[in-house]
Amino acid sequence: MSWLYYLLEANLYLILFYGFYRLFLHRETFYELNRYYLIFSSVLAFILPFVQLGFLKKDIIGGYHENIHIQDTAPLLSAANVCLSIYIIICLILSLKIFWGLRHIKRLTRNAKIRKENGITIIEIDHSKMAFSFFNLLFIDPEMNQKDTVLKHEMTHIKQKHSIDILFFELIQISSWFNPVTYFIKNEIKLVHEYLADEATTQKDIAKYEYALFLIQNSYGNQEVTLSNQFFNSSLLKNRITMLNQKKSAKWARLRLLLVLPIIGGMLCTSTMALTKDYTIVDLFPKKGTALNIKLQDTVKRPKTKEIVIAEPVPQVKKVRGVKLAPPPPIEPAPKSKSAKKQMKSVAPPPPPIKPKSAKGEVLEIKLSPPPPPVEPGTVKGKKLSQTKVDQVRFAPPVVTKDKKNLPVPPPPPVEPKTKKSSGK
Q: What residue ranges do the domains of the chain occupy?
């Protein structure tokens, strides 16, 4: 259910961005900047879940571990499938609202007078008492009072392409229908559009007081048309009149927008450290020199799983008829002391075996016995082998002198008497 975790995380960021707007930017008169903030903060809320800060991750030291899970198919009535089905059904129902609005706009073009001026299609609807725009379409009652003022107002909506903003926030509302903040944001962007158009209309030819009075007198009897910027919208009338008399914000007040940078940093830290997820795509500032533990495994927990660990493949040896293969040499243990290491290095490797050929030219393999294992120094057997054999020579006992005087020579050994056999001879 990673899709559900992604939606929850994105909507959490959307709530934080909207809270910042209500606290610091809601009453400011730099409407163009507020418009761009609402658009880009909403886009950023759905991008941040895919981004992490690599240097904040913990070091994971390990090797390569591969698990292959053989799992049964998930049941159709699982919790994930039920939630996904409900979510898709509600999204489809809300999508029908957009198609219904487009259909209603198309029906208004029937039986209406259509003319084009400067690339804009003006559609005149008699006795409708309405005025709104949708992309390059401008709907207006030809018998309306102060028609030029209304046209100037709606032309601002068309030139600044406010209809694109409305469609964009309609899509956000459809994808995040469970989040009530999306309805507030859509209302805020419509208010900002009206502030921009009212500001452009009252710069010349009409005073703000007369313009506000005109709005009050014509704020009734209008038809509600979705996906459009309506001139006579009674739900937005109070805020529009209030902002007409609002004092202009100081230039330094724009610096408040920089306060959103620590909020974005906190979101990135939360996305990296506090949330566990598997849909990260971009890793900003990855940490160098860290060993990664790569795991290929199924994240969905299902019953009746079997884990198979893949071992290293064993090389296959082809058997030759009539030829016996020598057993592999034993593994030599690592030397313990420095002197043993030097002794091991000084031993030259055995020469490669010579393969003689028979009369027919066939190569014969000679079976060589493996070399004896090295003997560790310090043992009794190692000491005996290390000692070299020396020929033992016996010498006569030395004559010991004392005070430079010759000692008496010892008497000779007694002579054995001859036996009778020897005397008879």
A: 80-248
Q: Rounded CA gap, 144 and 147, in Å?
A: 6
CA angle 250–252–258, rounded 5-degree value: 130
Percent of the chain at pLDDT above 70?
A: 56
3-state secondary structure of 345: helix
How confident is the model over 226-242, as pLDDT tens digits? Answer: 677 777 777 788 888 88
Higher pLDDT, 396 or 191: 191
Residue type, 77: L
Task: Specify which residues 137 forms β-bridges with.
Answer: 121, 134
Token couple for 168:
């964009």
Phi, psi of 133 (to 5 degrees): -135, 150
Contacts of 330 (CB under 8 A, 6+ apart): 370, 373
Contacts of 180 (CB under 8 A, 6+ apart): none
d(CA 168, CA 291): 42
Q: What is the 3-state secondary structure (H, E, C) of 56-81?
A: HCCCCCCCCEEEEEECCCCCCCCHHH
Whole-model pTM: value is 0.63
Round the average pLDDT of the chain to a whole number and report it: 74
**Token reading at 213:** 């009075």
* CA-to-CA dists, residue 157 to 151, 154, 160, 235, 241, angstroms: 10, 5, 5, 18, 18
Residue-wise pLDDT for 21-71, tens only, equals: 999 999 999 999 999 999 999 999 999 988 887 766 654 444 444 444 444
What residues contact 218, with CB distance under 8 A and at least 6 apart? Answer: 129, 144, 145, 232
- Paired residues of 282 in beta bridges: 51
| Mean pLDDT of all residues in 390-409 | 54
